[in-house]
Amino acid sequence: MAKRPIRNNRPSRRKPLPTAEVTISQLNDEGVGICIHEGKELMVAGALAGEKVLVAIEYSGQRRSIGQLRRVLEKSPLRRTAPCKLADRCQSCALIHMNYGAQLRYKQARLKQALAGYTALKDLQPLPIWDAEHPLGYRTNAKLALSKERGQVHIGLYRRGTHQVVDIEDCPLHHPLINRIMRVVKDEIQRQKIYIYDPQTQRGLLRYLLVKVSPQTGKAMVTLVAAERNYREITHLAKWLVSKVPEVISVHQNINGSTGNVVMGRETIRVLGVPDLIDQVGDIRLRISPSSFFQVNHEQASRIYDLVRSWTHLDRTHTALDLYCGIGGIALQLAKDAGDVTGIEVVEEAVRNACENARMNHLSNCHFRAGDSAELIHDLAPGSIDAAVVNPPRSGCQAEVIEALAGLAPATIIYVSCNPTTLARDLDLLQAKGYTVTDLQPVDMFPQTVHLETVVRLRRNV
Question: What pLDDT, in 10s, does the model give residues 219-256?
């Protein structure tokens, strides 16, 4: 009788990844170093243009490969020591290895490159980019993922291109209060043995930690995103957090029972404290709820609001429109000068905040409507608007919004963009509809990252 082969139950060792020495030719739009290796584009996060690097090839496709930076063999003069010990693991801040002046030049060049893709825009010259006075510690809003590995709770950001949570205790971009809250929550989850949601088994409770901070008041709002409604663990965690960090004045539970990657569900319950966070930008006070969006860099947001107000040149005889208005920050600035301002926003809770903000700032000439900009804009009569501001998401304006906006024929359009690519596309459409770009002001809203804010003024051709 033949003997059965002996099974080796020890896990097989992974084969080492193949390595290569390459020279990076440039950075792509995501701030990732690229070069041609073995006839394919090789992407290497953390490498700078002109650097010779040793990489491990962790993925090789038909047209593109991904390399893991192992060592910089010949450094770029633009390289600096990253102000974050987790920069290579996290990879959320693509430009953090680059000195700040070089970051600004990269962003200015990226904007020019986007404009150059359109014949009508290729000769436009943006104004010099506004740098940030504080390129670290500026983020007042954080969405943090939770996981548990080998019995340890991890709170942080997803590693670039993965669902692996990089455990963070002191992110240099976060407002210091966010980092304090993060540490206290992590310790208490570990102490209480609260179950962390596992997307593979779809079991567990806590999914995300959301923190919003008002730098003006030094207070914070915390939202604990859970897979299901829970009272005992969430309430105990909230009470512990408030006792350890008294600056937290509002704690909510959001219920997200979906199996996808969406961060928040539709239902939010107040657990402790006040319902909203009161913030202030310039002389405008703003009420912020758990699900409403607001800019994460207050200093740069304030500069943008002032610029928009000065570029519109409104007085009490003028009417203004603010599309994608959020909680009303820009609309309220315009209402200080204009006779009447209308804001349109699709998120109903943000509109609730916007209406409350108008009352709180005693601006009765500012009105808000909840709904899709592409639909509600058609309720406005042509010629009824003197100035319009659009502040769309990264996807830009819908084509029907551009069409309808041009039909209203405002003398001035201010476009506040967070994506140079969709900005260029929409500016090309607006110029074809009878508008001319007169000013482009890039603003570094998110230092250490590739993201760029741009404010553009367009005038209607007479």
Answer: 999 999 999 999 999 999 999 999 999 999 999 999 99
For the question of residue 418 being annotated catalytic, the response is yes
State both tokens at 195.
């179950």
Q: What is the CATH number of the domain that holds 187?
A: 2.40.50.1070
Per DSSP, the residues of 395-427 read T---HHHHHHHHHH--SEEEEEES-HHHHHHHH
Q: Amino acid letter at 289?
A: S
Q: In this structure, how many other beta carbons lie within 10 angstroms of the beta carbon of residue 455? A: 23
Low-confidence ranges of the chain (pLDDT < 50): 1-10
- pLDDT, residue 139, reads 97
| Of 219, 230, 306, 322, residue with least CA distance to 267 | 230
Closest by CA position to 146, among listed 200, 224, 208, 223: 208
Does residue 453 contact residue 416 with C-beta atoms inside 8 Å?
Answer: yes
Beta strands (DSSP E) in 340-406 are 340-345, 366-370, 387-390
Structural domain includes residue 55:
yes
Whole-number Å distance between alpha carbons of 418 and 438: 19
What one-letter code names the amino acid at 389? V
* From 35, 325, 355, 418, the catalytic residue: 418
Nearest Cα neighbor of 51 from 20, 78, 24 is 24
Decide if 105 is inside a domain.
no
Spatial neighbors of 288 by CB under 8 A, at least 6 apart, are 212, 214, 221, 276, 277, 278, 279, 294, 327, 353
Q: Is 39 left (phi over 0), alpha (psi -120 to 50) or beta?
A: left
3-class DSSP assignment, residue 29: coil
Same domain, 185 and 315: no
Helix axes 232-244, 176-192, angle to 10 degrees: 140
In Å, how far are 81, 332, 364, 373, 381 from 356, measured between CA atoms?
A: 45, 11, 11, 21, 27
